[in-house]
Amino acid sequence: MICHFAYQIKTWKILCRKKLTKDEVAQFRRAVVKDYYFKMYYDELPVWGLIGRVENREETEDTKYYKYFLYKHIHFDIHYNMDCVIEITARMDPHLVLDITEDREVDVEFTYTAKWKGIDILFENRMDKFM
């Protein structure tokens, strides 16, 4: 079976730039606290990842202080056989984050990278790991 890619993924790409309002920052923080994740499909293959993380910064007898971060960068590992995508995974870069601890308006740039690697799995068997 011959497969053709509809899109060319470049090495480092800006997905979008956005000015988040105070309300949007608060919504993202609530989503991070609840461990929300994204799920998307690439060539009918599912890929998912967390949208952010919580860090425990300080702890005293009376209070705990947390920092909330939104991931700004996703790295995709895409495995292919000939012209067909066989597998895709996503990793968030823990160093490229936006601090969303406080309700404040903030500019953010979301980016991604992709690494392509050949693999010996046949197209007909690419969904086996999901069964």
Automatic annotation (TrEMBL):
<comment type="similarity">
    <text>Belongs to the nonaspanin (TM9SF) (TC 9.A.2) family.</text>
</comment>
<dbReference type="Pfam" id="PF02990">
    <property type="entry name" value="EMP70"/>
</dbReference>
<keyword id="KW-0472">Membrane</keyword>
<dbReference type="GO" id="GO:0072657">
    <property type="term" value="P:protein localization to membrane"/>
</dbReference>
<keyword id="KW-0732">Signal</keyword>
<dbReference type="InterPro" id="IPR004240">
    <property type="entry name" value="EMP70"/>
</dbReference>
<keyword id="KW-0333">Golgi apparatus</keyword>
<protein>
    <recommendedName>
        <fullName>Transmembrane 9 superfamily member</fullName>
    </recommendedName>
</protein>
<dbReference type="GO" id="GO:0000139">
    <property type="term" value="C:Golgi membrane"/>
</dbReference>
<dbReference type="GO" id="GO:0010008">
    <property type="term" value="C:endosome membrane"/>
</dbReference>
<keyword id="KW-0967">Endosome</keyword>
<keyword id="KW-1133">Transmembrane helix</keyword>
<keyword id="KW-0812">Transmembrane</keyword>
